Amino acid sequence: MKSPNQTFEPAFDHLRGFAAVLILLYHSFQHMSGFMAHGSGFAESDRVSTHNPLFALLLEGHTAVALFIVMSGFLFTRSALGKDVEYWPFIRNRLLRIYPLLILLVVVELAINSQLTLQNLIFIVLPTGYFPAVASMGVVGSMFWAVAVEFQFYLVFPFLIRVLNERGIRPLLAIIALAILIRYGTTFYGSNIRDVSYWTSLGRIDQFLIGMIAAKLYADHHSPEKANTWSFVGAAALIVAVVYGFHRLGGWPVVANWKGVWPTIEGVAWALVIFTYLPVAKKVPRFLSAVASGIGEISYSTYLLHVSILIIIGMSGWLLRWTGVPKYDVALTIVLIVFPAVLAISALSYYAIEKPFLGLRAKYTRPSTSAVQDGFAKNSHS
Known about the structure:
about 70% helix, about 0% strand
């Protein structure tokens, strides 16, 4: 995905593609299993556990949200290190990126949901992240919560990058520490530590900041000569192990104190994946790179649309029961029905709705004022 603010790097589209596939597999397995078993979508009673680390990654595929958020922090910082970010051009670019499709889905929801109140509609259209309002959208808006959380980070990014440029990573580390303390503090007022850590910007801010810190460290310490495939393999093994540990401790349903630091742990693990993948991404065979990049390019449409498409497939009875073994039939349905349908519709959405607006984005960075002043001072004394 090309941007006027940084050089194109296929690795990021690869990672977006992976995250989109992971979240699609996660929800596909849940909903197709539900439709196969009892004729309706996923219910909490459908949850299963495993001792297979790779299957655990699929069962806890919600971790893809963390990858998206860490990657956002990394990408924005990569484009703005040592530069000033012009606030309103930056926000305008973000609106052009996320709002066309989001508004279209709001219009769809208005057409089918007579219970949607004006108050909830305002909360949905504005990036409040107010979960009851998002929940009122039903299936169509089921992924809006993450968009709202990310947009809240966009609102403060120009200030955060200025702090990072001028003072380094320590202030960002301090914010992470403070966010952890606040998350635990909210439990004294009756909050659910799992929900605060998962659904809110207070829980996810760690991951955005970790992405920013990783970008700074990458810029300062990486050199092309250090590309090491085994480092990436190690990082990939680490995220699988971390998510497997999360799963064996009870996974998503469990409300436990350790979940107050889970976003931080998860964010660091994904940051290591990004950090180690970037140098080796150019080794990916051209065909696989093109496929991964293509999926990454349409990942936003995939993210917002896939749950609605899954429910339509299930309710329409488009389920393959060829083997009589539920797990195999679910897998066949996902591979032969779900993936082609979701990716085709996502591609259509991208080219019809997203791409025309992406072409309107403008440059939002400029040379740092302090850097220009330093250069002027040096020249005046030479």
